Amino acid sequence: MTDTNASLMARRCAALPSGLGQAHELFVARAENAELWDVEGRRYLDFAGGIAVLNTGHRHPKIVAAVKAQLDSYHHTCFQVVAYEPYVELCERLMAKAPGDFAKKAFLVNTGAEAVENAVKVARAATRRQAVIAFGGGFHGRTLMGMALTGKVAPYKAGFGPFPAEIYHARYPNPLHGVSEADALASIEHIFKSDVEPERVAAIILEPVQGEGGFYAASPSFAQALRALCDRHGILLIADEVQTGAGRTGTWLACEQWGVAPDLVTMAKSMAGGFPIAAVIGRASAMDAAPAGGLGSTYAGHPLACAAALAVLDVFDEQKLLDRAKAVGERLSAGLGELAKRHAAIKDVRAHGAMVAIEMFKNGDLHQPDADLTKRVCAEALKRGLILLSCGVYGNVIRILVPLTVPDQQIDEALAILGQSFDAAQG
Ligand SMILES: Cc1ncc(COP(=O)(O)O)c(C=O)c1O
After folding, report:
1. Which pLDDT tens digit goes with each residue over 36-77?
2. I need a surface site. Which of 33, 209, 286, 395 has the fewest CB within 10 A?
3. What CA–CA distance (Å, rounded) separates 27 from 38?
């Protein structure tokens, strides 16, 4: 009997715990650039990109070739046992691309959460302080420290505590929802007054654009104010670029747009075009503070993923994907802007490079986020062959993370499907 999405879903549900989410009841058979085909032979436009992992698309030929070539020479030694050059080259190239006029070092791990964990370890070792300030609405992963830093309870933290101590949450600037930059900065001062003195804070961690949280951006002026505050108190500033990094926002790192440099940067997701790897890049003086043997893990910086990540860097240069990110963002926001004119529920269309989102409210009322409509639109889009993801603290945001290599004609096709999906979801 041939597999169907339904038969595989039944096996999945019987075998896997229900805590493991799945946005769409689909099983993939094959994929190419921005398209994928399910086990029943149906074609989809993939505008989720494996949650921001496929900036270079599914199966980019250069990346596939680099991984195949690596597989023919060696594929695991554990870098801490017998080292290999691609790991070092990747760190060198990532350091060269990170902002900040100071000496840097970098090391590799496996996942975004692991990069975040390690950035906190480095910050604590370097400052000999314990506390960390993160932001409401932020997402930093599903490990215990990742959850502790994450600023959204359901579904990420509920029932999983207690979490590591000494984590405090400030407010992330979000003018659409009534939080100004001044409010956000005041909330940090409030933490210093009511929870922990600044002399005990090792780091402040933020996403330059909140991913899970709803694609809200920290402006350059906010980042500059944070930088000044960190400098005043000897606190390290960490940019979590797991979702924004690798070109999504039109610069290699989103923090390049700040005009000030963070001390530490975390990357993962699109940096290796679909192969699991992550990086911590930062100020050499801080990075050298951890004791020998204190950093690393068995698979960290896996040779196949290093080969893929080096190919991604080449592909970005050869195909000018940073320019393409801006063009994709502009084309999408123009089309979504037209859609917003026809649907009062869409109150905001925002694009940070190709990190594009629309936010929905009942009757266009900013006090009534419309998660139901958001779900219905995503479901209608799937019926019409478009894979979308929602996000946001209120679940009322559709986010687009399409490969930057997507042809224009497929962007237009997706916009047409979105239009039909809104009509169907509201009709
Ligand atoms: C900003 C940010 N940090 C950390 C993570 C965790 O990454 P991973 O799922 O690879 O552990 C994510 C994942 O979505 C993320 O968006």
Report:
1. 999 999 999 999 999 999 999 999 999 999 999 999 999 999
2. 395
3. 5
Ligand 1 centroid distance, CA of 102 (Å): 27
Residue 427: band (very low, low, confident or very high) from pLDDT cuts 50, 70, 90: confident
Contact, 333 vs 351, CB < 8 A? yes
* CA neighbor of 86 nearest in space, from 303, 255, 286: 303
3-state secondary structure the chain: CCCCHHHHHHHHHHHCCCCCCCCCCCCEEEEEECEEEECCCCEEEECCHHHHCCCCCECCHHHHHHHHHHHCCCCCCCCCCCCCHHHHHHHHHHHHHCCCCCCEEEEEECCHHHHHHHHHHHHHHHHCCCEEEEECCCCCCCCHHHHHHCCCCCCCCCCCCCCCCCEEEECCCEHHHCECHHHHHHHHHHHHHHCCCHHHEEEEEECCECCCCCCCECCHHHHHHHHHHHHHHCCEEEEECCCCCCCCCCCCCHHHHCCCCCCEEEECHHHHCCCCCEEEEEEHHHHCCCCCCCCCCCCCCCHHHHHHHHHHHHHHHHCCHHHHHHHHHHHHHHHHHHHHHHCCCEEEEEEECCEEEEEEEHHHCCCCECHHHHHHHHHHHHHCCEECEEECCCCCEEEECCCCCCCHHHHHHHHHHHHHHHHHHHC
Report the nearest-CA residue for atom 8 of ligand 1.
112
Regarding the beta carbon of 393 and ligand 1, being less than 6 Å apart is answered no
Give residue 341 CA to ligand 1 midpoint distance, Å. 33
Our mutation pick for probing the ligand 1 site, out of 55, 139, 216, 390, counting the most ligand atoms within 8 A of Cβ, is 139
- The residue nearest atom 3 of ligand 1, judged by CA position, is 140
Q: Provide the pLDDT for residue 154.
A: 92
Closest ligand 1 atom to residue 241 Cα is 1
Query: Which pTM was predicted?
Result: 0.98
Ligand 1 site, residue 112, Cβ cutoff 6 A: yes
Q: Can you tell me the distance from the alpha carbon of 224 to that of 214, in angstroms, rounded to the nearest whole number?
A: 22
Tell how far the Cα of 127 is from the centroid of ligand 1, in angstroms.
25
